[in-house]
Design goal:
This protein has one domain (about 5-265). About 15% of the residues lie in helices and about 50% in strands. It is built from 3 helices and 16 strands. It has a 16-stranded mixed sheet that branches. The relative contact order is 0.22. Residues about 20-50 have low confidence and may be disordered.
């Protein structure tokens, strides 16, 4: 029998786990539609995405993750799968998180590949129902299924999943451009509206993970709203600069840690 408390825990877990799938860097969804740009007083040079930015698209890859964390006094574990497939002209990406007995969350993104990187066309987030974002380049607008009015389409816009691959594409093209202290910004469309995300490069780190050792580049994103977690992201060159680890933590001690377990060509 599924109790109200169990359902509440499920929503909490899938919400935090959904941050691994969605709102880059994986912050909690917000219905406000606010766009928290990089705040003043933050160190590092800014490297915004532009049409002239060189990219190196990661090779098609399937990555499996072990996920560990805690909500309140409840520890939990889950499995994750990132599937990234492209033919150099278009791409299809899918991220799944599955919790034993509690269901899961799936996000998918598909679109085109351009000289400036990924150009999303359609994004879907599924927990109990589908929530979508459509990128209409003919009308230069973005449409949301959750009631937010259409908004103008900014240059370089990404969805909550394609942002991972776009980050890897940017850094992979010229890693030397991103020393510690550098910052990158991306316009990102969550299921509730537009946002701006800033990623600060923390530096190189070697990680011991369930799948073995990985040399990585660590990025961080500090929360800009009270409901957002601290986010840490480790991109691995051996994975085409896709995530080897993602860790979210909140001031109350809740956290979720997604760790590379294995990878292979899809």
């Amino acid at each position: 029998m599924i109790t109200t408390r169990t359902l509440r825990r499920r929503r909490q877990l899938l919400g935090l786990l959904g941050s691994l799938l969605g709102a880059p860097l994986l912050a909690a969804d917000s219905a406000s539609g606010a766009s928290p740009a990089a705040g003043p007083g933050r160190a590092g040079a800014n490297a915004p995405v532009s049409g002239a930015t060189a990219v190196a698209i990661p090779a098609s890859l399937r990555i499996r993750y072990t996920i560990r964390g805690r909500i309140g006094i409840l520890p939990y574990s889950a499995s994750g799968l990132l599937q990234w497939v492209h033919d150099e002209l278009s791409y299809d990406s899918r991220m799944e998180v599955n919790l034993f007995l509690l269901g899961g969350r799936v996000q998918s993104s598909r679109g085109r590949i351009t000289p400036a990187g990924l150009q999303p066309l359609y994004f879907n987030d599924r927990v109990d129902k589908d929530r979508t974002v459509e990128f209409d380049y003919a009308r230069a607008q973005i449409r949301f299924s959750e009631g937010t009015p259409p908004v103008p389409l900014p240059q370089g816009a990404q969805d909550a999943l394609s942002a991972f691959m776009q980050l890897g594409s940017l850094i992979g093209a010229a890693p030397q451009r991103y020393p510690a202290g550098t910052a990158l910004t991306l316009p990102v469309m969550s299921i509730y509206g537009p946002d701006i995300y800033r990623f600060d490069v923390a530096g190189e780190e070697k990680l011991r993970l369930p799948g073995g050792e990985q040399a990585t580049l660590k990025l961080t994103r500090a929360p800009v709203r009270p409901d957002e977690p601290n986010a840490e992201l480790w991109l691995a060159p051996a994975l085409g600069w896709l995530p080897a680890r993602i860790r979210l933590s909140q001031d109350n001690g809740d956290f979720v840690d997604q760790l590379w377990r294995s990878s292979e060509a899809p």
